Amino acid sequence: MTEVEVTGGFRKAHESQIKEFKYTLYLMRRSPLTMTGLIMLLFVVIVAIFAPWIAPYHPTYIGGQQYWPYDSSQMLSPPSLQHLFGTDDMGHDLFSMVVYGSREALYIGFIVVIVAMLIGITLGAYSGYVGGWVDEAIMRVCDMFFAFPGLVLAMAITAALGPGLQNVMYALMVVWWPGYTRIIRGQVLSVKENQYIEAARAVGLSRFKIIWKHVIPNSIPPILVQATMDLGNVILTAAGLAFLGLGAAAYTADWGVMVSQGRAWLLAGYWWWSTFPGLAIFITVLAFNLFGDGLRDILDPRLRR
Amino acid sequence: MSEDAILQIYGLKKYFPVKGGFFGKVIAHVKAVDGVSLEIKRGETLGIVGESGCGKTTLGRTILRLIKADDGMIFFNAPPDVQDRIRELVGRKDEKSKRELEEIRKKYDLNRKNDKEIRPYRRKMQIVFQDPQSSLDPRMTVKKILAEPLLTHKIVPSHKVESKIIELLELVGLKKEHLHRFPHEFSGGQRQRIGIARAISLNPDFIVLDEPTSALDVSVQAQILNLLKQLQRDLKLTYMFITHDLSVARHMAHRIGVMYVGKLVELAPAEDLFNDPLHPYTKLLLEAIPIPDPTKRKKERKLFTGEVPSAVNPPKGCRFHPRCEYFMAGVCDKLEPPLVEVKKNHYVACHLYTKG
Amino acid sequence: MDDDILLKVEDLHTYFYTYEGVVKAVDGVSFYVKKGEVFGVVGETGCGKSVTALSIIGLIDEPGKIVSGKIIFQGKNLRELSEDEMRKIRGKGISMIFQEPMTALNPVYKIGDQILEIILLHKYGIEDIKKAPKDIKKKERKRVIDMLRLVRMPDPERAIDSYPHELSGGMRQRAMIAMMLAAEPSLLIADEPTTALDVTVQAQILNILLDMRDKLGISIILITHDLSVVADVCDRVAVMYAGNIVEMADVYTIFKHPVHPYTRGLMQAIPSIAEKKEELKYIKGSVPNLIYPPPGCRFHPRCEYAQDICKKEKPKLIEVEPGHYVACHFAKEFFEKEKESDKNE
Fold first, then answer.
1. Which among B349, C71, C179, C183 counts the fewest CB atoms within 10 Å?
2. What is the pLDDT of residue A67?
3. CATH 3.40.50.300 fits B5-124+205-354, yes or no
4. Which residues are registered as beta bridge partners of B182?
5. Mapping DSSP to helix (H, G, I), strand (E, B) and coil, where does residue B32 land?
6. C-beta atoms of B290 and C232 within 8 A
7. How confident is the model over B269-287, as a mean pLDDT?
8. So what's the pLDDT on residue C204?
């Protein structure tokens, strides 16, 4: 007897999930700030995906052409129809660079957060569920990481590894995992008290299966909120590191690098170089924060039922 | 008496450490279950009643080894001749008997088994929880919830799991339309039915029912109680029914044990307990229950005083002595009364009856 | 007769506007409470008993709303009062105690101060306890101890300086009762006050409530799911089902001649301590969803006597004998039958 025969199709079998999903959409629609965040977020993501079609030039093209000799009249030109965000001191089209920069920002954000989350979930779940010395050891290591300000630690690690995008990402992963470990652990401690965990033990499930089938799935929702907000924070920190010269090389399409390079020209009246990538960072981080905040309310079980 | 006992429990103890101070040292113990001995006969319902904090829930959990007891013996499903031998050996102090008992314990005592060894026993002993809301994983559909025990113990081949689940649902009064729903889509009574279906899915011999109806409305409670009785008849189950509600216990149980602060104070056939309660605490409990008939209102309202003491520092001697109206100074506050048989099958732990 | 009436609720409708639809939690409820009586409201989860209570005291929050009806307390319609006037009624006129006292007591203040605060507010109009003159505080402290003694708090001199978490469940419930009585209300609403307590403690708390009625002459609305508690302490009782009152009478009448099939079903479903029944009678099905309540009589899908008319018309509350109201199309017939079987016995 297959599932379809018994229940009559996908819609019927997943009726409950569909209802749940519709309700989530409804809650989202009711909160204008969450919707704003979501729309901004979608905008950034779409820009990143379609960057080659949106950007008029390749970010490394100078003055609209790939090879020397460059046209000096195209250098440091203010925003115009030809160059929406103006150009830098070598004649790169800033609009194209900002558009391509979104790819890099999201790439850093997602990779770092996902890796940190995976580490955090595994360690946190075992720490909380097993307890005892395992818990003690993992939490003390976390404490050590928390003792340093995140940015300083990331700087130190990047400096030790040497500047570069890869190394910035490693550094950020190292800085971010303890946060998830701690949240997951706290969550697991409360999930563990539920009787369905005891029921699973009474049925004879092994500890490994209980952790992966019951404890972790029920501990995840609150970290989704944290993860969304962290996407913004990671992007911001990465930009900070780039600003300090620890990130990508000069003239790469990286928002942090662009702000950093443009800063020297800011007071001289060439305001556009730093401003537009800065705005891009601002919009992206704000989008993640707004959406994360809204997500917290939507996922809150007290509001749901 | 050599009736077939599915469970024999001797001197069961569970102390929970209370941590405190700067280094999280253990500063005290909650004596949740403090030396409980009893037998549960095959096919009967043993009611365990008591107020919150009396240790009745911990007792159930310890028997199932969901919590490991600190001391005591739990013999489950021992063959009848071994049961008799255990009864003979338990009180004895000589070396030879001790050694023999040790041999039996190695084989049958659940308290001697480690987590891996206990797993096969899980099939045979199950539990239904009080709160049907938290005893079902909110992220799993009914199908997944019920498939879990079936697959873990390979009760049926995997292609037959779904039909087995439908059979289980029908057994507890649900329908196959419910298969793909989540727990929150059900009413409390229906959720409890799912919990019961999970418990019986493994064809157990023995089920601990931990306040299975105290979270439910009366009209639904009656449905569930009837269902439990019917399942007991049809599947030949043995129940341990834990409840704070004496009227529910009377309805369900063949024998009833009354617990007070970790101790069993009275154990008797249900009818006997209600018609002739012996322990002062049992009397107090019966007195305190409101009766659903206004014409039977007590003319003089008794002044009930005191509350259940903490199990961290239980009173010395008889634990009930500070609230007892028959308190005998010098006896009750010094000596702990043993559980003795004062009438046939009627056991009580009170100095009123031990003195003669 | 009308002087006797302290609270009168007329055709109260309280709805909750949720995503899934309008929950008609209370849908046309009328009753009255006499001075000095204990009025029981009994029903199962979701029958609207707590919402009725919250409507009376004016604590219905978004997305809930009192849609229509009158709540007349001491001659005033509470629904017409401003929030300010309502606040004065709360406490001094009507007080409420809850199932879980821990949620109503503030964990960071001592019990004594919380009671004192209420006395100061209602007697002197002092809002901030810190600004109260010393001599008043000293004088009223004695009263607080008296209040605690009144609710039979063991060792009140010590309890007054305890924090809520230092007290046991029963003691907390006492502290809350003392607190709610501090403002000398004329009506106390007790919402499942003993549900979280053990039977021996429950008996103590119920005794205290009756004591308060006798000593202070207050009226009490006791909301509970437990018919035994009703039988034990109430004078009159209303049985609620799915947002409606289905039967209302004095307690002796209703237990002797329950008329509505729901009331009868409930009474038969309780296992009795006095005798052992082999099989419990039960009411089939479960409480309906109040967004789409069954048309006609809301009980009809679970009722073994349901006829066509029950599915179409909503029965009105009619008086079958003086003071005994029933909302059932066959109330008169059932009532006669009850009387009949009574005679045969």
1. C183
2. 56
3. yes
4. none
5. strand
6. yes
7. 92
8. 86
Q: Which residues of A touch C19 (CB under 8 A)?
A: 23, 26-27
Contact present, B267 and C296 (Cβ < 8 Å): no
pLDDT tens for A249-276 read 777 888 888 888 888 888 888 888 888 8
Which chains, if any, share at least 3 CB pairs under 8 A with chain A?
Answer: B, C
- Is A1 in contact with B163 (Cβ distance < 8 A)? yes
Rounded (10°) CA dihedral B93, B96, B101, B106: 130
- Residue whose pair of structure tokens reads 């709540």 in the numeric block: C71
What is the DSSP secondary-structure string of B318-346? STTGGG-TT--TTTTTTSPPP-EEEETTE
Token pair recorded at residue C209: 């409530």
Q: Class of the A39-57+82-304 domain?
A: mainly alpha
Instruction: List chain B residues with CB under 8 Å of A6.
Output: 162, 166, 176, 179
For B290-330, write each residue's pLDDT tens digit.
888 888 887 666 666 777 788 888 898 999 998 888 888 88
Give the model confidence (pLDDT) of C116-140 as tens digits: 888 888 888 777 777 778 888 888 8
Among the partner-chain residues A7, A209, A305, the one whose CB lies closest to the CB of B184 is A305
Q: In this predicted model, what pLDDT tens digit does every residue of A40-57 receive, in sequence order?
A: 999 999 999 998 888 887
**Amino acid identity of B115?**
D
Chain B positions in Cβ-Cβ contact with residue C204 (cut-off 8 Å): 304-305
Among B130, B251, B274, B313, pick the best mutation site for testing chain C contact (most C Cβ within 10 A): B251
From the number of C-beta atoms within 10 Å of its C-beta (0-12, 13-18, 19+), residue A193 rates as exposed
* Neighbouring subunits of B (3+ Cβ pairs under 8 A): A, C
Q: Where are the alpha helices (DSSP H) in chain B?
A: 56-63, 80-90, 95-108, 115-122, 142-152, 161-171, 188-200, 218-235, 246-252, 270-275, 280-288, 351-354
Query: Closest by alpha carbon to A215, among A128, A156, A282, A133?
Result: A128
Nearest CA-CA partner of B191 in B177, B178, B176, B208: B178
ipTM for the predicted complex comes to 0.84
C→A contacts (Cβ < 8 Å), by residue, are 19
Whether residue C293 is preceded by a cis peptide bond, meaning omega within 30 degrees of 0, is no
Which tops the pLDDT comparison, A253 or B128?
Answer: B128
Q: Which of C325, C291, C292, C330 is nearest to C309 (CA)?
A: C330
Asked whether A164 and A210 are in contact (CB, 8 A), the reply is no
The count of C-alpha atoms lying within 13 angstroms of the C-alpha of B354, restricted to the half-sphere facing its C-beta, is 17
* Inter-chain residue contact B288 with C202, CB threshold 8 Å: yes
CA distance C20 to chain A (A): 9
Roughly what angle, to the nearest 10 degrees, separates helices B142-152 and B161-171?
110
Domain borders along chain A are: 39-57+82-304
Sign, Cα dihedral of C101, C106, C112, C113: negative
pLDDT mean over B216-229: 90
- Tell me the pTM: 0.85
Amino acid at position C311, single letter: K
